[in-house]
Amino acid sequence: MYCLxxxxxxxxxxWLAWPHNRETWPGKFEPIPGLFTELIKAIARFEPVxxxxxxxxxxxxxLADEARELLGDSLTDSRFAITLHADIPTNDxxxxxxGPMFVRGxxxxxxxxxxxxxxxxxxxxPPFDADNRVPSLIAEKLSMTExxxxxxxxxGAIDTNGQGVFLVGERCLLxxxxxxxxxxxxxxxxxxQHCGAEEVIWLPGEIxxxxxxxxxxxVARFVxxxxxxxxxxxxxxxxxxxxxxxxxxxxxxxxxx
Length: 257
Known about the structure:
- The chain has helices at residues 32-44, 63-71, 95-98, 120-123, 129-142, 170-173, 184-195, 241-252; strands at 14-17, 49-54, 82-89, 101-103, 112-114, 146-147, 158-160, 165-169, 199-203, 220-224, 227-230.
- With 257 residues, it is an alpha/beta fold.
């Protein structure tokens, strides 16, 4: 059976996208490319990093040129493993949500590359056409078979312990702006077929102001195969208190694999 690994599993590489959409950081964009530079270099000391940097930024300068300038000698320094992909353009930097999922199979079998659909969290932030093409372009670059379930699902909407148990943000996955006429059973079937889900824990609560509509990674994460760290609010008067308590009650009665 194929299974989506937990995030602490060994990585072949990390994929990132070079930041260029100023509307994502209104009035605060200037330090962001430099901070991404430090992030890329920090990760690249331990595993290869692939950076999507196709297209041009707000200044009409090629993003790859900006990335090369800021990353500088680290691109040729043997202590770092960084690859720039100037042929893969993006609309925004959130590759965690629009990038592919690499699913592991039995020993000796090839990886699957799962290409979920992406529409910028329910069409909130167009355009998103370039981001939605990223999984296909990566599949072509890696010569991998691309599986398209035909469902909009962002990477942050789910989490897994790597042994078949999944946390799922309920509202975002069932959002009609993402998936029309979509049910829990249909979602569970898709996660079972493509990611090896055996148990799905639906999280009903979300924090105020969350424009992802309840991504699981905002409120609860697996920290080991049998342990979940959940966000709670201690102030009963706070608007986040009851939604996070609903999540906690669900988790306290949940089953593992």
